[in-house]
Amino acid sequence: MMTRSVDSAATPETPDEASFLRDTVRAFRRNRMAMAGLIFILLLVFCAVFVPWISPHDPYRVALDEQLLPPSTTYWLGTDNFGRDVLTRILYGARISLVVGIVPSLISLLIGTIMGILSGYLGGKTDFVVMRLADMMIAFPSLLLAMVVMYTLGANLLNIFLALALVGWASVARVVRAQTLALREKEFVEAAHANGTSRGRIMFDHIFPNVVPTLIVLFSLSIPEAIMWESSLSFLGVGVQPPAASWGLLVAKGKEYMFQNPSVAISPGVAILLAVLAFNFIGDGLRDALDPSMKD
Amino acid sequence: MTQDTILSVRGLCTDFSGGRGDVRVLDELSFDVGRGRIVGLVGESGSGKSMTALSLMGLVPQPQGRVSARSILLDGKDLSKLGPAGMREIRGRDIAMVFQEPMTSLNPVRKVWEQVGEPLAIHQGLGRRAIRARVLEMFELVGIPEPKTRLDAYPHQLSGGLRQRAMIAMGLICEPKLLIADEPTTALDVTTQAQILRLMRDLRDRVGTSIIMITHDLGIIAEMCDEVNVMYAGQIVEQADVFELFERPAHPYTRGLLASIPRATEPRVSRRMPSIPGMVPNLAKLPEGCRFGPRCGEAMPICQRAPELKPLGPTHASRCWLNCPQEALSQGDAP
Amino acid sequence: MTTDTGSEIVLSTRALTKHFHVGGGFAGRPSRVVRAVDGVTLEIRARETFALVGESGCGKTTLGRVMLRLQEPTSGEIVYDGTELTGLGEGEMRALRKKMQIVFQDPYASLNPRMRIEQILAEPLRSHGYGTPAEIRERCAELLELVGLRTQYLRNYPHQFSGGQRQRIGIARALANKPDFVVCDESVSALDVSIQAQVLNLLADLQDQLKLTYFFITHDLAVVRQFADRVGVMFLGRLVEVGTTEEIFARPLHPYTMLLMAAVPRPDPRARGGERPMMQGEIPSPMALPPGCRFHTRCPFARDICRVEDPALQNHAGHTVACHFPLEN
Fold first, then answer.
1. A12 in a structural domain
2. What residues does the ABC transporter domain cover (chain B) (predicted)?
3. Which of B191, B195, B251, B292 to mutate to test the interface with C (most CBs of C within 10 A)?
4. Core-most of A1, A248, A258, B286, by most CB within 10 Å?
5. What is the ipTM of this complex?
């Protein structure tokens, strides 16, 4: 037997027996911006959940003698046109806005990913049907579609989710399909095909993990979009109804008092901005943490 | 530096700073290019041969990369003392470069003649009509068939070989003192490669262009070059006249490379080819002493110390303790 | 060491054709046909290395894919070990893939960057129900050792390896289910010379040890001469010459073969100078093939009949050639 040419120079150090999840968590924790984003969101969620115990103010109590007060030690961010504490209302609004931002994004991401991968990988008739469906969703005025859903099914949170997901999945599917088409031509996918791996496994093991980074970017982009959609619907009177508070609604109502007390409109705007930034940092951190080549 | 030297490089070093500290990717390169000569830089990936071209052109990515040199004399002018603005004037006028990938080095939405003539517009401020006439001349020089009709073509309408000819025309349009060709035929088929190589040799003979030929292919070196620099892990390990190099290779790395290339002209003796064990070291984790030491079949204790590039004759130098027996003997015993 | 190539045929093709349609679609624009593989008939013998050489665009890669039915042939037959492949259903074909494997060109693109080496090697084993997870793990370690890598690399990711090491991993994956027919598609072309020799030696060792048959697709004539037993030269979708390596290199009969060989730069400065014959012009577009012999537009010896009549592959002085006027030596 001939001697085998064994590689003498060993570059890769053998990593410890860490699981993929633990690698990812470790890589994520090393990213300071992502951790800051995560801490901010966790803090926001905590405050939103426990706001009745944290805040001394009632979000719905009308006090006409305390209209549009500037920020003070009692009202940290001032009061609105009904004399309600802005900070408290923002924290109550976070309950709705965070949920509205995250849940429909997740639903449309889930549907869009499945549709996009099936469409891109299987091609043919599946592709045709899925893409025409997506075209229809994109071509139809989405606000109108959402309003139709809300009118026929009633304006409640569940239906907002439904309406937003119905509007959102199509663009996700398009992006995922384009990525799938590129991935399908990769040699490692061909290799999997060549060694007899089934199409289902190829889609799950090879296509999906390589689409995840894109999904995370789409997710962090779709949260602010969903928050905005919710505020548009609320503004048109088919979304969250006053006196309940959501961030979009707070901005929409507050902008009328821009000159008397800017804090009323700007504060919820800043809340949206910070939350969106935090989600973006988390998204970037996750994307990098999930990429094996970024871990060393 | 003599009258006949167009480029004289002394002590060229390029460092990159990254996440894990500084890495020296080029270490003390010194070589000359004679007027009208073709000088080869040969090495495997990661040897620093392309980085040498970028360093000479002032195209090393900033600010991570830093280039320093005792001197880089181009026809008497020291490039190492020039700032970015000075280098911009040199590029395309005095030194031109031909890249590996002729498709990506041409802008797909602009006509070929506009791109090929661009150096003229930049360095000589010629008008469109004059540029077009000059590009046509260049197309004839580099042997593009039907040159008139090709002027208005877009890059995708040309074949790979024609695109590379256009790139060479662009490189030569300002009559540079030096042409750097970085793997100019690697992306081409052998038959097209043969045509391009012949063109470059012809141009040298007819126009007197001095060329630095960067390649991984010892066959191209043997066909094209007058002198050769063999690079390994950021250093020149052997420097020789091309006949010297192929007939009396001195460095074990060069010998290993020459032994491991399959040859189309010789019948098979054994299916097992001689090979160099191991792989090119990571520049951030270089071995102690000679960089080739861990892969070298002839390593000695003294190889723990870094050898210098020592002349073996008027046209031959090698960076190996084997080639300086006295020193190896006298210092080999030292702890 | 000699390779004992038997006379038994492992895989053969008959008039194998693969056409692609490009362009066209809406608005009635006619689509054009690219004849990537255009009637290829060949036989590959057990335990031999059959090299397929040609320039880019000649259809050699497509032929390799079609032979494994990774792409569906347009027409023709593929017979592997007595079974006609083109009529097989997906399930039957999947089962056969154990025995027919492929090693790709690009060691970077052919390994999924998000999988550990262990997952990459385990995939073909799991797909064919190799055994328990413990048995699969054991086999993965065995495979790494087989290609000369250390078993502790199993938990690493592809990006942690050099090009040569990745190519070894790609080879290990191809060998997971003990195939007997392996297509090597430019498998050493992307590697540095010193690493290329290592990988070729490994392939030679594995062939002896595991009694493999290689269908070795490459553009590198030097590698062909040192590695292959028989050679097929392909030009624009057709085989133009087939014979044993020594026959072909010592006495090329087709002008294309001869010109291709002459174009290879020789690592010997003393060999330069002398005017070598050189091919003129460019390869015709596979969408607009010239009439007659496909090579006549570039052939220095073309005569009238070559412009009209397409020559067939026929036996001539020990090997087969498709030329009206085979070269006399």
1. no
2. 9-258
3. B191
4. A248
5. 0.86
**Inter-residue contact A57 to A72 (CB < 8 Å):** no
> How high is the mean pLDDT of chain C?
89
What's the pLDDT score for residue A4?
41
On chain A, the residues whose CB falls within 8 A of the CB of B294 are 8-9
| Residue that the structure tokens 């009633």 belong to | A154
Q: C55, B277: Cβ pair inside 8 Å?
A: no
C68 close contact with A: CB closer than 8 A: yes
Q: Is B294–A9 a contact, with Cβ atoms under 8 angstroms apart?
A: yes
The answer to whether residue A6 sits within a structural domain is: no
Please, what sign has the CA dihedral across residues B100, B101, B104, B107?
positive
Task: Kindly report the nearest CA distance between residue C255 and chain A, in angstroms.
Answer: 34
Tell me the per-residue pLDDT of C215-252, one tens digit each, with 9 for 90 and over.
Answer: 999 999 999 999 999 999 999 999 999 999 999 999 99
Residue, of C254 and B19, whose pLDDT is higher:
C254
Kindly list the strands in the beta sheet with C9-22, ordered across the sheet, starting from the edge strand earlier in the chain. Answer: C32-45, C9-22, C75-80, C83-84
Q: By the CB < 8 Å criterion, does B256 face chain A? A: no
The whole-number pLDDT of residue B232 equals 95
**pLDDT reading at B1 higher than 60:** no
Domains and CATH numbers, chain B: 5-44+59-228 (3.40.50.300)
Domain count, chain A: 1
CA angle B267, B271, B275 (to 5 degrees): 105
| A14: closest CA of chain C, how far (Å) | 6
Q: What is the pLDDT of residue C1?
A: 39
CATH number of the CATH domain containing A190: 1.10.3720.10
List the single best residue of A187, A189, A203, A295 to mutate versus C (max C Cβ within 10 A): A187
Residue A11 falls within a domain, yes or no? no
Domain spanning C8-23+32-99+213-263+279-329: CATH 3.40.50.300: yes
Domain that holds residue A278: 20-56+67-294
- For B123-176, the DSSP string reads HT---HHHHHHHHHHHHHHTT-SSHHHHTT--GGGS-HHHHHHHHHHHHHTT--
Is B74 or B62 the better-scoring residue by pLDDT? B74
**Is residue C135 predicted with pLDDT exceeding 70?**
yes
Q: Is residue A195 part of a domain?
A: yes
State whether the Cα torsion A226-A228-A231-A237 is positive or negative.
Answer: negative
- Cα of A13 to nearest chain B Cα, Å: 13
Q: Give the B:C interface size as CB pairs under 8 Å.
A: 148
In whole angstroms, what is the distance from residue B329 CA to residue B312 CA? 17
Domain boundaries, given as residue ranges, for chain C: 8-23+32-99+213-263+279-329
